[in-house]
Amino acid sequence: MSQDQHGINQKPTPVYYQPPAEHENHYQQMVKWLAISLTSLFVLACLFIVFADRILINLPFSAEKKFVKPYEDATRYLYSDEHSAEREAIEAYLDQLTADLAANMDLPEDMQIEVHYLDSDAVNAFATLGGHVFICRGLLETLDDENSLAMVIGHEIAHVKNRDPIVGMARGLTIAMLYSYFTGDYSSLDVSGLGSELGLSYFSREQERKADELGIQALHAHYGHVAGYDSLFAALQMEQENNANKDSQSVNWFSSHPDLDERINSLSEQARTNNWQLRNEQTYPENIIEALNIINIKKQEIDLGIKKAI
Ligand SMILES: [Zn+2]
């Protein structure tokens, strides 16, 4: 404590903190650094969304299989007690047709396609991570020939080959991460949300076009002609019109595959350019027609039983 000339103590003059002159500069630099970081993050994420297909096509399929393994185990457990002679016949038929088509599609060595039959009325089929292709009973019944079914399977195998499910999931997750980062709402990154991403992916128009292109090639390689692509789209257009009248909201193959007219034109052009012929489609094998009939009869009996019980 200081003293004046009379020896009386004086209070020291308080010294308040004075930021150094360059403080303003430091603050501005930090804000600039943050702005550059956030913009870079945003630009990198956007670039990843755009180029995800070119990046992820190089990801080994075995890595995708490892990632999806826990979900595969959960799904197998869910369907493990659904056994019947009809289901086994349909599964064996789908297995063989899928293997025959895949053999002509030049898939990477470590890529195996597993096809699954779903006892659902939905007119639907889809491909998910890990090489899994699902075919619903509703689709089998709507398409009554093998060639149309083969076109659907070829199209779905092409999605797996082009790595569309993992590209779709990676794009979806990146968008969810960006959204969470900028809004602080992390609910979209929930694991249950990831599960739905694994189940059903909606692909871009370009991804659909490429899957059609490979699908019809597989059809031609297997049968020596391309009948099936036309009957597939004719059946889907009819189904679409019926559903429009019914105002149905059900999930089906064309709700995830828009622009039917554009796709028919593009496929017709591909067939014309390659001089691929249309011949008669072949019906399903007898045992498959019978299996579908039995399943329907059983379903009707169950429905009647439920109505009687009510
Ligand atoms: Zn598709």
Which key features would you list for this structure?
single chain; 64% helix; 5% strand; mainly alpha; three-stranded mixed sheet; 310 residues; binds zinc ion
What does it look like?
Helix 1 runs antiparallel to helix 6 and helix 5 crosses helix 9. This protein has a 3-stranded mixed sheet with strand order 1-3-2. The mean pLDDT is 84. A hairpin with a 3-residue loop joins strand 2 and strand 3. The radius of gyration is 30 Å and the shape is elongated. The chain has 310 residues and is mostly helical. Helices cover 64% and strands 5% of the residues. It has a domain of 185 residues. The longest helix has 34 residues. The chain is built from 11 helices and 3 strands. Zinc ion (ZN) binds next to helix 5 and helix 8.
Characterize the biggest β-sheet.
3 strands, mixed
Number of helices: 11
The ligands bound in this entry are: zinc ion
The first-to-last residue Cα distance is 97 Å
- Gyration radius, rounded: 30 Å
Class per helix and strand makeup: mainly alpha
Look at the structure and give the mean pLDDT: 84
Give the fraction of residues assigned to helices: 55-70%
Strand tally: 3
Strand content: under 5%
Low-confidence stretches: none
What is the topology, as strand order, of the major beta sheet?
1-3-2
What's the order of the H and E elements? HHHEEEHHHHHHHH
Can you tell me the overall shape?
elongated
